[in-house]
Fold this sequence. Notes:
Blueprint: E1 16-19, E2 26-29, H1 31-34, E3 42-44, H2 70-73, H3 93-103, H4 130-139, H5 154-158, E4 166-168, E5 175-177, H6 195-200
Antiparallel strand pairs: 1-2, 2-3, 4-5
The structure holds zinc ion (ZN) (3 copies).
Amino acid sequence: QSTATATTTAVDWNKYSYIASDDGGYWELKPQYAYQGCGPARIPHCKPADSHNPSQHPSQHRHPAATAITGDAAETRYTCLSPGCPAKPFKRHADLQRHYAQVHLDSSSRDSHTCDYARCARSTEPFGRLDHFRDHLRDYHQEDICKRGSQVDEKWLKGRKVSSRWWRCTKCLTRVDVAKAPDHVCPRCKMVCEDKRKRVRGW
Length: 203
Ligand SMILES: [Zn+2]
Ligand SMILES: [Zn+2]
Ligand SMILES: [Zn+2]
């Protein structure tokens, strides 16, 4: 008899991860819960729990009979479905993705890397891979981040744009402010700034 465990009626959102996709995304049962069979494997984005309650959508109030309502219906909004999230629906799917990555993913599972130069186009269009962010910092911003596994070349370093106030961790690409970390150790991954990179900064 297995009736004792078959009483799941409400969805336990803690067991789901939100996966963003072009058609609005969906909730996926986390792998560690999948074997328990404690809910549907996927719940589509288009069926939020309150979709049956029209009073939650004041913009969709009935128009006078003569007015066409097709214009409103065509407007798409992307709603964050993380339980209890107060964020307003987003106009663009990319905005929802960024919000989700910034607010709901912990740093270890985050796979989007936004450039920290305020005026850079990639400050709003994150890189999916850390390596691509690394290449961007080296090739576009002329930073002294060398390719992974290669030696720091002193001649090359002299032509790079470096600041004596900060350096960037080669490993996790965090910008490290010397005023906050005078020991030149990355606060995030504990990597120490390479000696040659210190020297070129006059430290
Ligand atoms: Zn959210
Ligand atoms: Zn950039
Ligand atoms: Zn680091």
